[in-house]
Amino acid sequence: MSTAYCDLRGLRGHILYLCLGLLLLLIPGEAYEKLSDDRLKALPRPSQDFDIHTGALFSPILQPRVPGTPGHTAVLEHFASFFRTTLPQWEIEFQNSTAKTPISHGKDVPFINFIAYRDPPGASKGDVGRLTLVAHYDSKLEPEGFIGAIDSAAPCAMIMHAMRSIDSALDKKWAAMKEQGMDLLEEHHGIQVLFLDGEEAFKEWSTTDSLYGARALAEHWDTQMNPAMSTFKTPLSSISLFVLLDLLGSKNPNIQSYYPTTHWAYQSLGSLEKRLRSLGKLKSPPAEPWFIDTSKDSHQVMAFGGIQDDHLPFLARGVEILHLIDFAPFKGFPSVWHTADDDAEHLDMDTVKDWSVLMTAFAAEWMELEEYLDHQDNVRREGELEESEAIRLNKKTEL
Ligand SMILES: *[C@@H]1O[C@H](CO)[C@@H](O)[C@H](O)[C@H]1NC(C)=O
């Protein structure tokens, strides 16, 4: 804001507004609009399709997914078919790369990042900043049969639930803007999902044996150029916030705040956690708040170089990061971390579903969807709203 300066002295009211209006046009800016209690209460909670044995959304991810194995391919296909059928308005891309690993005997191993995004209709690609929700989908080679339920099958499912829960509100928002004759070129807020490959080391964690997918994508997006005159120069700079979910799905998580510049977004999640809990929308036992740094202010937040994860290649290139990982001093990672016990049966499903609702709320606030989400009057059975029922109820209120 400091570069655009308007001298307002002596200007008449309407010129002042023009001046402010121009300022707003010049600054793509962060959007964030709190949801009312009414909308929070009506947010859908995952139900049958999160069943760990039969759930259509979640159970296909709960299998070994080592790069280059059939399980890995099956999970990737599951993501693609979920977006194609449930979220047909989304664009899907794959970003492919290859790398040698310490166990590949000089051969190249393929890594495939899954990318899905939704932009306002008609917006030019380089002018949209995207809230970007990220988890890795590969699983660790050892111990044999390792499932990686918190690492990161459950985070992938949480993100899928959140995106399908806000999708029809995005339809309504952009349709309403069109109807009001608003130029959608001025709508700069899109949303994006990254399911990254090759996060895990094959042998021993090092700068070259880990983060295969994240390193390839960050480098690719840093060198690819958006069209000339775009607001954002590269796909990398189109990421308005990189929210990385990892090691989530165990009971009583401890989430720290790591970056001063995104502490405000951390605080928003902390406040949503409190509000959702007081509204009875979270079912896990409220031992203590998940977001343990909410009483800190941004200059008390320390970016210590501790946790190595998929955000690092993006952080190094200046992307804003919010790292949601269950880790606390003295406690460390959840006890199942990198053991055979990190399987579906050891998940705390109330916590998994609570996270899904929380991420839905955060995405809806970021995308400013208050006016376009279902509200409580439209929801008969709280948290059990089926899509067909939602459509029927909407039709009813329209008549
Ligand atoms: C990348 O990999 C996916 C999945 O195997 C494949 O469908 C796609 O064609 C590949 N893309 C390119 C550009 O090679």
From TrEMBL:
Q: What is this protein called?
A: Peptide hydrolase
Look up the domain of life of the source: Eukaryota
Q: Which Pfam families match?
A: Peptidase_M28
**EC number of this enzyme:** 3.4.-.-
Keywords, comma-separated and alphabetical: Acyltransferase, Hydrolase, Metal-binding, Protease, Signal, Transferase, Zinc
Q: Which family does it belong to?
A: Belongs to the peptidase M28 family.
List the GO molecular function terms.
Answer: glutaminyl-peptide cyclotransferase activity; peptidase activity; zinc ion binding
Record keywords: Zinc included? yes
**Protein species of origin:** Penicillium subrubescens
The GO biological-process annotations, alphabetized, read as: proteolysis
All copies of domain Peptidase M28, residue ranges? 130-361
Instruction: Please tell me whether the keyword Repeat is annotated for this protein.
Output: no
| Residues of the signal peptide | 1-31
